[in-house]
Amino acid sequence: MLKKILAGLAAVILLFVGVVVTRPDTFTYQRTAVVPVSSDIAFALVNDFHRWTEWSPWDGLDPQQRRTYSGPESGTGAGYAWVGNDQVGEGRMTITDSKTNEQVTIKLEFIKPFESTNTTTFTFSPTEGGTQIVWAMSGDNTFMGKAMSLFMDMDAMIGKDFEKGLATLKDVAVADAKKHAESVAAPAVP
Questions:
Q1: Cβ–Cβ under 8 Å, residues 78 and 49
Q2: For residue 125, what are the β-bridge partners?
Q3: Residues 32/124, Cβ–Cβ less than 8 Å
Q4: What is the C-alpha separation between 112 and 98, in angstroms, rounded?
Q5: 148-167: per-residue pLDDT in tens?
Q6: Are 32 and 136 in contact (CB under 8 A)?
Q7: Which whole number is the average pLDDT over 44-52?
Q8: Torsion sign across C-alpha atoms 24, 25, 31, 37
Q9: Does a cis peptide bond (omega within 30 degrees of 0) precede residue 63?
Q10: What would the pLDDT profile of 84-93 be if each residue is shown by its tens digit?
Q11: DSSP 38
């Protein structure tokens, strides 16, 4: 009887492993939004990690999280690291490529709770009504990632955060555009 139970358990484990290894080796999650501002305003909010606290969907999850910045103020080489509670974990981001008003590419490294390295890309393109922003994250699917994807819809989980971030980014960009327009329209004081 015990041999049959162990054989059955081994068969289930082998079947599970077999299904997991057939999952894709890479992933990409992305969301798109149109922001009613010029690309320079939207780009500036992404290209400067100091501005991420204004729109990042994860920023408010831990009011006590520690942030550090490194490298240049913005653009290629700028770095941002965080350490926070279980909801935000620990990690760092580095801008690896920045094309003014077109694209920001980021090396995203999670340290805790799970180690992984992914690429995040923001692309900005003019469109009717403003600027289209595409926020994408891609990386390698580890065995654990593949297994988790059998039980959780990772695209929906991450996509919800991207959608929230893009909506807040839109609000901040609109406010920035309004401030800029007011400062241009204000008469010069002698």
A1: yes
A2: 132
A3: no
A4: 27
A5: 766 677 788 889 999 999 99
A6: no
A7: 97
A8: negative
A9: no
A10: 998 889 999 9
A11: -
Sign of CA dihedral 64, 65, 66, 67: negative
Structure tokens at 9: 């358990």
At residue 40, what is the residue type? D
Q: Which residues in the chain belong to E strands, given as ranges? A: 26-35, 66-70, 79-83, 90-99, 103-112, 116-127, 130-140
Structure token digits, residue 173: 């960009």
Q: Hey, what are 67's tokens?
A: 């942030």
Are 126 and 39 within 8 A, CB to CB? yes
The number of C-alpha atoms within 13 Å of 190 and in the hemisphere containing its C-beta is 0
27: left (phi over 0), alpha (psi -120 to 50) or beta: beta
Measure the CA–CA gap between 7 and 86, rounded to whole angstroms.
38
Contact status, residue 130 vs residue 35, Cβ threshold 8 Å: yes
- Dihedrals φ, ψ of 140, to 5°? -85, 140
